[in-house]
């Protein structure tokens, strides 16, 4: 009898440990090994539809009929005519250069000056079209919706092993003009149409391969189960490879996301050791060790990028920590009432300017002086360092460590600290304002700036009008309440007026919070940090603790992406 029980226990232990083992194994594959993958391929951009005859293009005041290829590229410009971009020298120059490549030789000889081109009618035509779309009847709108749903059902899902998974963005971007962020040197260039011949498909050998449109062929069909993309191609502007992958809400993506934040959590545990180490290294006899240690200090304290992590276009002169040049920093042994101040000024990722003044420790300052000695402005600040050396060093310090992990760690811990500091038990709108402020602190840290939206002033005005109206309504209702009191009206009437005042006060407060939020957010982009750097488990825990509706913090797409964290629900989450 006894031996039966011990046998049972042994069997149970065995089963449990194998479950545990299987779970571990699944995690360690980092989600990117499938056995079976079947999908329908991408949805290509619709072909170009030539303009109707009554839409004319004028060159130097004279009517000119363009060939279809030249006309198509001209329409890209016309569609953006109201946008500030088309007034920028760089944009116009790049556009014109690429446009000429599409012209017939006759067009090339006629059109010699972009300033003599009149795109007005084209632009008006597209504006009228978009207006017409807005005015469409319910039935027409429904038809479009149904068609989109049909396409989603056909192309929007794949089968990966035994799961049906949503595909991320399965539509290939239509051709157009490249914008880029900031003052990107390639703005205005022609982003080419992607043809089937440009596209590589990755799927299982034994699956139904996606069919290219009739009369065309894919560039290649691969069967590589180590990658998670289904479709890839190379875009012509930066030469970067684009992918169609699974939707962020899919199992595999969720696991990757989870792992990223787990790595940041591991950094939290050992960051003090790393700091002690780099401080020690500031005193090293070896120059390369000192440089590495100062660079690491910048990455830790300023959340700088390592530099050329991704290949930027060769002309975009953007800089990260390792590629800082002498001209990008200035040293002040005293500035205002601070000592040892470093001033940074350079173009970072996406050509966004990074400007910051920061007091540093004396030893860092002395080291920087040393690195600057006998150098020209265009020389490298860290001449004994490059990204691969730094990354290798980070790997040695902690498995999986990169400069990005420091950003994730700092962003997440800053969010948590800020939330703790700012949130008070007030109304829901006040809590949301606190959350957005915490998110803003992180976005500033990560240098996620944006130009104030064009519509900013207008939308602020609208909001202010609403506030003024509410205020008027409030004082009117208050007056009524007072009048009722002096007239000793029935107490029932009194109570409902009091309620009305309260309700209006709440609405007014909500509007005022919105206005503050929008004003503070004028030049800051919250989306990037929310999506890429903030551990969603912090936000989820905060939402639960303070009883804030999840949809106030995450919109639908974000809720899908962070489903793994929302489901996980760790109470009282400590990062
Ligand atoms: C451009 O063409 C439109 C008519 O299509 C005309 O009204 C406008 O004056 C033209 N603009 C210039 C600068 O010639
Ligand atoms: C995060 O970055 C800021 C500066 O950008 C720095 O002052 C702070 O020490 C960092 N915090 C942590 C915990 O790394
Ligand atoms: C970085 O520097 C090391 C050593 O000087 C060198 O071997 C390596 O090729 C460099 N890597 C890059 C990407 O420049
Ligand atoms: C959610 O917000 C992001 C920006 O943070 C935006 O790009 C996206 O379009 C929004 N999605 C929906 C469904 O509103
Ligand atoms: C078999 C094969 O070539 N697979 C490729 C699928 O795409 C990735 C990314 O380009 C490549 O690394 C694989 O080699």
UniProtKB/TrEMBL annotation:
Q: Which UniProt keywords apply?
A: Biological rhythms, DNA-binding, Isomerase, Nucleus, Signal, Topoisomerase
Instruction: Spell out the catalytic residues.
Output: 533
| Signal sequence region | 1-18
The UniProt catalytic activity note for this protein reads: ATP-independent breakage of single-stranded DNA, followed by passage and rejoining
Q: Where in the cell is it found?
A: Nucleus
Q: What does this protein do?
A: Releases the supercoiling and torsional tension of DNA introduced during the DNA replication and transcription by transiently cleaving and rejoining one strand of the DNA duplex. Introduces a single-strand break via transesterification at the specific target site 5'-[CT]CCTTp site in duplex DNA. The scissile phosphodiester is attacked by the catalytic tyrosine of the enzyme, resulting in the formation of a DNA-(3'-phosphotyrosyl)-enzyme intermediate and the expulsion of a 5'-OH DNA strand. The free DNA strand then undergoes passage around the unbroken strand thus removing DNA supercoils.
PANTHER family, sorted:
DNA TOPOISOMERASE 1, DNA TOPOISOMERASE I
User: What is the protein name for this chain?
Assistant: DNA topoisomerase I
